[in-house]
Fold each of these.
Amino acid sequence: MESNIPEPEIKSRSGISPIWILPIVALLVAGWIAYKAIVDAGIEVSIRFDNAQGIEKGKTRVIYRGMPIGLVKNLSISKDFKSTEVLVEFVKEAREQLRKNTRFWMVAPKISLKGITGLETILKGNYITMLPGDGPVERHFVALAKPPAALTAEPGGLDIQLIADELGSLSQGSEIYYKGIKAGEILDFSLNEKGKVLINVHIDRKFVQRVKKSTRFYNVSGITFEAGLSGFKVSAEALSTLLMGGIGFFNPEDAKSVKNAANGDSFRLFKNMGLAEQEGKRITLLFDEARGIYEKTQIRYKGIEIGRVFSVELNREMTGIQVTASIQKQYRSLLREGTQFWLVEPSLGLAGAKNLETIVTGTYITLRPGRGKPKRIFKGLGAPPTYLEPRKGLKIILIAERLGSIKANDPVYFRQIKVGEVTGYRLSKDATSAIISVDIGNPYAPLVRTTSKFWNVSGINIDFSLFKGAKVRTESMQSILEGGIAFATPGKVSATTEETKFNKAKGVVLEESKPKEVNAGAQTLNANQPSGKPVKNGAKFVLHNEAKDEWLKWRPKIVLGK
Amino acid sequence: MDKEHLTAREAGLVNCLDCHLLAIKGDGALQMRCPRCGARLHLRKTNGMARTWALLITSLILLFPANLLPIMTVTYLGEREPNTIIEGIEHFIQSGEYLIALIIFFASIVVPIFKVVGIMLIMISIQKRWQTWLKHRTLMFRVIKFIGRWSMLDIFVIAVMVALVNLGTLTSIKPAPAATYFAAVVISTMLASNTFDTRLIWEGA
């Protein structure tokens, strides 16, 4: 190369080549991506599962309220090979929810008699779900083996506990019914230290108001079949309870004033609805013997069934029978001090058959209500009570030489119509006469005047007379067999003497008063006004052994009461 | 190495890189054109080193999003499942498709990195005026240029998959952001290898 050729002046171009824009742009883009990645970074949380079955790395999600909020990033087995650690990355929005009491569990498809749940997991795989809790922020959790008690976590729902002797056919997911409508379900159950079964129940929000402190829960599992002489009854709740079991509840009638139940309250679970209804409303009847009284023996009042015998057992001293019975709530006001219970049995007697229907329907217990304070324990009588409780009718007292065949409940006749009843009898204090208390029905009370004559109609009265022939006089057939009392009231004559005599008659007046019979016969027949004055309660009369002929002819007009 | 060979520059000649005509280098001329084909003539590619470096750095940066972001999203039964390149390879290994896994691994991971790192090494060696392994470096560059055209394989695979696997909600495949970055990496490395003047390797020799 010759050196005389001059070298060109070489200048390096100043400035930066525009090509450098490329790496700067790339840097900006990558930087932006990195920034976004850091800002949007999820929260990594480890959850310990007993069993990672169905969990797949990069696939299994954490879904809360249908929204995926986390993804399983990694799976590893613990060092002791007893559990698995699942690393989950949560979206950053979940940051505040991952607290100490947050609970996680697996959702897997479940096919049961009640239905199919978690169906979406068949296609998409199992997923993990959670229930946010409180407490300090936490990054390590232990998953639950099954959905937690407060699974639904429906705001406003009610979580309560039922205590039962045995679980029966109930299971997790068994439903709770209120008037046949699904009102909740069983979340889980466990045994307590005392060996009772604790059942955690969730009540749906809509039914929270229905659960009171006094609400009674009962098992409705299966069918109840009840058969008896008066027919049979089959009852079942919703069909699913036949298979899955179920719980029903109701409120006792006085529940309106009771406070609503609160979360965590405990209730007793009754074996069946009957038991639940009877709880706290049972009455105890003490009978001498259990003859004719069985479980389910009816308790009737005025022919209407108002309750049933629940159990019959010997009392502790083995001296009598303790009958536990339940009375329907609307009739509970009958249960007062003074209420008398007795057994009604079929009876065949000279006067006819009584209570024949009990041959078919079985014996029943009936009662006569008292007026005292409400009461729960009563003494049962073997036979109808002899002394009837005071009635509203007119109460008078008859004084007789002898009682004759008169008994309690014997009828009192006026013109052969029953207008009253013998309510009892006793011996007078000086034992010289029998004192019979009589109750005249209200409308018939005006029939009794101070001049009225009472006589015993028990048996047959036969008069023999040579001239008149034989005369047979009776009241009704029943009175022949069972005895009874009849009375008559004379028309207005000059009967003042009788009146005064009766008013003065205190104590024993066995001597027959002798009315002036001279004109009586003709005059009384025409007399329209009854003689004497109306009587008050406690008025005393003589009970004659037989009626005089003219008594039977008395026909005054008397306006009956109401 | 001894100065055995006379270079074109020393001989005052310029080689047209398009039609390979040897022309006499003009003096002081800012722009030279091939008298036969009209292509621009350079003694060395203009600003070659700077451009190569810029493109290399660009591709180096873009390698990160290309590999860390999902490259395609497989929707299977409505479940969207984004996959990065590595995850895709894992899939193929898990399903026993080792050959495909190997090809994708080479085409998508080994080759781009090899290209970037390889050219960088050559560049550094030039700037440091290393005088060893000259032939090997040239060989490496030739290999880089050769495989460069295959590194778009990944993008082709995605393009074909997107077209083929499109069964509506049942299964479908969609390209994800990393596909764009990956294509950018491939383009910028190809440009880098193009702007690089191999003659620089022998400059000091």
Amino acid sequence: MMSKDNSAKKPALSFLDNSSARMIALFVLVFVVCSLLKGGKFLNADNFLAMFRQFPEYGLLAIGIGMALIIGGIDLSAVYLANLSSIVAGLFLHHFYQGTGDGGTGLVLLSFVVALIVGAAGGILNGVLISGLGIPAMLATLGTQSLYWGLGVVLTGGSTLSGFPKVLGTMLNKKFGLFPVTLFIFLIAALITGIIVQRTKHGREMKMYGTNNRATLYAGLNNFKIVVTTHMIGGILAALAGIIMWGRYSSAKADTGSTYTMQAILIAVLGGVSPNGGSGSVTGIVLAVLIIQMISSVLNMYTFIPTACRQIVWGGLLLVVMILNFYLDQKKKNRH
Amino acid sequence: MSIKRLTKKTEFYVAIILIAFCLLVQVRSGQFFTPNNIVDLLRSLTIPMMFAVGEMMVLISGGVDCSFPAIASLSMYFVTTKMDGMFSSPIPYFLVAMLLGLCMGAVNGFIVAKYRFPAMIVTLGASSLWIGVMQGILGSSEYPLTSALYRLGEAKILTGTNAQTGFSSNLPVHFGFAVVLVLIGWFILNKTMLGRGIYAIGGDEVAAARAGFNVFGTRMFIFCFSGAMAGFIGVCRASMMMTVNPNNMIGMEMDVIAACVLGGVSLVGGKGSVLGAVLGTALMTLVANSLILLGIPTVWSRVFTGLIIIIGTGVSAVQEKQRKNTLHVAVSEE
Amino acid sequence: MSENIIKVTQVKKYFGGVKALDGVDLVIKKGEVHCLAGENGCGKSTIINVISGFYTPDSGTIEIDGKEYSKLTTQQAIEAGVQVIYQDLSVFPNLTVRENLAITMEKSSERKFISRKRYDEIAKQALSTIDFQIDLDEYVENLTVADKQLIAISRALLYDAKLIIMDEPTTAITQKEVKNLFEVIRRLQKKGISVLFVSHKLDEVFEIADHFTIFRSGHNVYSGPTKELTQALFTHYMTGRDIEEEPFEYNEKDGAKTVLEVKNLSLKDGFKDCSFSIREGEILGITGLLGSGRTELAETIFGVHKADSGQIFLNGQEVHFNNVRDAMAAGIGYVPPERNVMGLFMDQSISDNISVTRWDDCRKGIMMDQSEIDTLVDHWVGELSIKIGNASDTMRTLSGGNAQKCVLAKWLALDLKVLILNGPTVGVDIGAKYDIYNLTKKLADRGLAVIIISDDIREVLLNCNRVLIMRRGHLVDEKQTKGLDEETLSRLSVEY
């Protein structure tokens, strides 16, 4: 009875209590700091183009892994599934493509479909192992990590797959002004998954499942479907990331981007996905992707800092962000 | 222990599968029970087995540690490059590496114990941090091993020679270290209050606190122990390999965790034994190293590792599911 | 020496600005069984924590065995002979009985190493105090709650306990086990050990407790001998208001259809050959001991388990449920026994918890329609007078009673034919309990068929027109509740 009146007036809490507001604030802060630090070098078209080219691949992986975290699990296999997808698609191209570098647009597009199917299938396998057999997500995706990686090695004989039609590279490296085509792939994928996670029944069910996967059964939700669908979407996102990485170098390899798993988990947690499951949004993850990319780009501009040092930043940032969130949430709880 | 209780234990089944697999390889290749093969296997078992002891303790307490390869690599790389040639005895290298490992483990322990974040994510983050320090700041690359540790690497317990082929393999002293470490792990877990406290915390943290166990302190100990061991193992690895390779331990965490779980250590804490962890590790090592004897090309080894993890954990997951679904009403006959 | 084992005078304890205890007294004599009652949040657990030295009171005095403590520590409390057996029992499921019995003792005597021999001695000594027979090598997770409780008691007795505090010890055990527990308590009493029983059911502790203290919102409201209390007085003191208990009257209408009929339903290790039916507007009780198959039967009707044989008819049509969704679609709702584990999503919003069963209907295209959900939730919050702050707050902000109403709301939001309530008022305060009773009666009046599964005999008699008795997986008897008294029914449900 009292809910209606109360729901209207939200308590005047500090904006930091809301995780997406927190993200936007952090985004602005990082943007300003980066601009101040590097000025024209940061705020310049070339830099933006470079940034737009870099983040789609790990951004897609971060969304996929973030979704796995929301349902209270994790996906350690995504990076290797991405590679496996592009390897299978690459072999498909090799098999059917007769030319010597020209033409083949249709086949290339078809090979993307093959990659997406492989990604979806790999994701479904993850979901079936987790929900069907009941293997804890960490172990199931650890197993499939080895499996997908291993299959990639077997299919390529451990070497790099190359010699694809030129159109593959040109198609995926095309740009419209400042905006590379891969950015659009990322944005469209993020928009669709964002709608799924934040606006559809499936998204709500994911959060319910992430909170209590026994109560979901008694509320008539379909646990198997929730887990399998979530991982299938994760698999498709991984395949998209695989396609982008494939197009970037026009080559496919079983262990490209092996540090992305860690980075993707960091991004998801930074973006407000609860490491315990049950909450998180794609909006937050996308903002976190942008933040990480800006930091990464600025770090790159300091040439005396070795690239490997970025790992220090990622790891350190993950721990600091978690601790910071902990204190902010605690403050929020105390106020209640 | 009664037979009935024995057959309830995961260790029992892992042991049977292990023996069956050995026999299979023997039948297929005739090369399994040869001195050099056995020595080779024990040699490859050395490092994972030591890691498994530390990991198992963390798992039993209800956490997980993904950072020990990073800790091992960084401690090892630091002592072998920054202290190259400073000592003629290998002992100071081990001690410094253990100290470094302990400090890094303490960081994990503190964050996990104080904030109660999921240990996997914390240790993955820490792992990235330490690898970054090693690769970025110390600029890791292959490096010749300092002489004190090199000499230790040459020391061997025994040599296994295959009478037919003439191939021979050495069992390094490090295997002895591993055995000692396993015994220490067993002793701590079974014979000390500290060890029982680890089980108690993994079983019911609140009850453990009420019984007077220091939950924070125990968690800290486990991660510090795991860290210090990682430092020790890192140096072992370098001296066994007789070269400093900073990157070849990275990624081992997943195989070690999987091996522990295969051996019956519970991912949610409270359950597991040193024997199980060793058997699980032995099974993983055995399969990975025997493919060639079975006539399977080595490119397949990752696929097989993946399959063992999936099948091994799948079987226990399905059993657990069935156990949970079984009803327990004593229906009378009327 | 004093005749009182414990004497708490004018203890106050505040948390922030919240008064948990606002000047309470509690006196327990030696060898006395004392019952402390009160609704959730009345300060029961705070006083336990004060007596055990866990909390330091803001003012007031604590006297144990005549000795006054200004700042009681947990260690002092233990040394003075105070032992608490918490509701969760604080046993280690992953350890053996032997270790569970010995480990706390060994820990408190600051042993660093384990001796199997000492373990054995301690364990045997512990079991001998209450003549409890059990396999020392069994893992505690394989034991029944009652056995775990006995382990916790024998463990507490090792400490030379003079006062044992038991927090709601009867909630998760069967009546037969309660009898056994009372036997043990009487034996302790003979040895001069006092027992403080924390409970909110009068009928259960009536026979064992000598003395009663009732708390309400941090104050003493009653303290006196048990025999002077009646159910009505008890309810009055607990809730501060008088609640009329009106038994449910089933107005048998002509042509009331049989809604649900179960014929010869069997499930391995669950139940066998169960047949019953229920008509529109009926409230059917199913009572039986824990482990009699009552939950399994209910969950089979709800589609959680699949019956091995037998038939279920809904409105005369045979139905086959492969899962919960099928049962829900057919109009069956089920309020599970463990609310926090099976019924609710504690970290999600109240709104989502109530609307979850209706999400299919709250959509515009593929998107969720939040305004539709808000309307739905507001309606049910009002209808069931659920006390909430904001519908977007998490479930954790609600009390047990309000949380249970949310579980009910989730089902009422569906168009049900049959509603099964399994232990609907466990951990629910009296006020909300009667709200729930009235609600079920109202629902039945509207034609819903309601099944209440409960081992609270009083609850069954008060709310059902008919009761089925379940024993060892069989439905053994059926009674009209009119004219049935508590003793008869309770005798029927236990085994002879």
